Amino acid sequence: VAERGALMEAEIREQPRAFAAAVAAARSVEAERPSAIVLFARGTSDNAALYGRYLLEGVAGIPVMLGAPSLANLYGAPTDLSGWLAVGVSQSGATREIADCLEWAEHHGARTLAVTNEDDSLLAQVANRALVLGSGPERAVAATKTYTAECAALAALAYGWSDRRPDWAAVQAGLDEAAAQEPDAELSEALAAAPFALVLGRGYHLPLAHEVALKLMEACRVWATGMSWADLMHGPIAAVPERATCLVLAGDTTLSASAHDLAERLVGLGIRRHALASTPGVDALELGLRPLVDAIPAQLAVLAAGRRLGYDPDAPVGLTKVTQT
Amino acid sequence: VAERGALMEAEIREQPRAFAAAVAAARSVEAERPSAIVLFARGTSDNAALYGRYLLEGVAGIPVMLGAPSLANLYGAPTDLSGWLAVGVSQSGATREIADCLEWAEHHGARTLAVTNEDDSLLAQVANRALVLGSGPERAVAATKTYTAECAALAALAYGWSDRRPDWAAVQAGLDEAAAQEPDAELSEALAAAPFALVLGRGYHLPLAHEVALKLMEACRVWATGMSWADLMHGPIAAVPERATCLVLAGDTTLSASAHDLAERLVGLGIRRHALASTPGVDALELGLRPLVDAIPAQLAVLAAGRRLGYDPDAPVGLTKVTQT
């Protein structure tokens, strides 16, 4: 009998390879620089899309809209997307709703691109072009390597549409090192003990905060919220449950002063707080690329927490690998 | 001694007037139809901005990006915003961060518009034009009437940039009726009893789901998450706490079948579920306008829940009317 979460662990540790394949795929896809981009995705892919939104705007200077599937599919919005590129992001490429969004976008003037791990999928067929990630099959329901692959592909598109050249080799080295580590025992214990978790990140680390929260819900059945700590201060801080565990993604060193203020505030409220700093050496990377590496220790801690709780993150109760709504 | 939440209650019941003033203000502001829009806001105003995003795209067909303050202020993103309109939404107009976002946007080619309740505020001074809501002073920390006013102003801009003419008088009548009601006792009891609340909406009702969740956190210190139920199915459904109260905003009748499936799923999980259908008569309104009216019964229920819990929603512990981060 395989260990619980054996697939998820293998896929977490395959991420250096998934990263390399995705960057290579993105660099070989022919896609002209668009004047603006709309991204469509759900679940883990939506968190990758949010990361892409930050990189595409922050690095390439392209405005990015996160598409609302209901506007496309339910209300048939009359959006003028001339000059826009619509990107559908889906590991399986089988989510009907996202394919429908790309068809709607094309009908409204956009060119379309699929970012998917399956080259013969519905999404790849519907789109004008497909960026096929080449991650190899992903079998754990809680996605990890395709999250990293989708993020990497979108980052590579962003740099390709800019005059900046990132140090991919340094990212690769960071991933190799992170993927060889064991999970942080103290952190996984705290995550497993929490009835509720709050995962805080800002800027380039915000998408990872959402993704870690989603993994906690899938793999540990711990209700979790990912949030910017700026947004936390605008109201929600009044209601954080005392028994919550708070994980602060502190890898963005331009935010150190702000993260310090946050920590003091949480301590004052009696909240159990853990910080996830960047993997040593990752501080040399460009800010926008650090979350690619920081994903791995967070995923490992979530997996270990799920195992402590006796769950199988490879097949969470009530979830399937492809969701249709 | 005034009753707890007296200010909040008065301001909830002033919403018909705040609505009328905001629509009039929006119709008199001179703003040319932009090719695309970026919205900047925090907290309650961010929920109003999300509503604006749905109306501006769904009614006027204008693509809308929700601006990331960190890209503007922290990373200085090189975004090309030629032809764009940047809109800052802030009740007080005093949030430095949002004013900075508009200055950044103007520097990158956008025209700028402030949507604010204070005509001599920082935001109004910084922007090319100001849409001043005319709601009268808002004194409860938990904002209600300026939420409705901001939503109404953005909706009026959306219709003004389209060839559709909404039935404002019918919205006004719906607001008048809703504002005269007493809170739903069963719902407020359920909200007060919950250690955790999940507020679900889709499409045009999604922003109200986020706003009701924020009000619950501010006024009741109940941790709450606002979410699309499509997103809920992509993972979080596995982790909804058994003792949660779930409020489904079911006012969008095009989603009735989907809402029914959701209800069955929640019942199967043993989740305590309440539905908030639209106020009677509101079904005659265009879909996008119904959430303006549906806000009121939700706000009244949250206020009543806060009172049951012995809190004062006018001055929640740890919060101030203007937040700077």
Structure, described:
2 copies of one chain form a homodimer. By secondary structure, the first copy, chain A, is an alpha/beta fold. Helices cover 46% and strands 14% of the residues of chain A. The first copy, chain A, has helices at 6-13, 15-28, 43-58, 69-74, 96-107, 122-126, 145-160, 168-179, 185-193, 206-220, 229-233, 256-268, 290-308; strands at residues 36-40, 64-66, 84-90, 111-116, 129-132, 196-200, 223-227, 245-249, 272-276. A 5-stranded parallel β-sheet of chain A has the order 2-1-3-4-5, with helices on both faces. In chain A, helix 9 (185-193) packs across helix 13 (290-308). The first copy, chain A, is globular, with a radius of gyration of 19 Å. Chain A starts with 5 loop residues before the first helix and ends in a 17-residue tail after the last helix. The interface between A and B is large, with 70 and 71 residues.
As laid out across the biggest beta sheet of chain A, the strand order is: 2-1-3-4-5
Detail the poorly predicted runs of chain A: none
How do the helices and strands follow one another from N- to C-terminus of chain A? HHEHEHEHEHEHHHEHEHEHEH
Backbone shape of chain A = globular
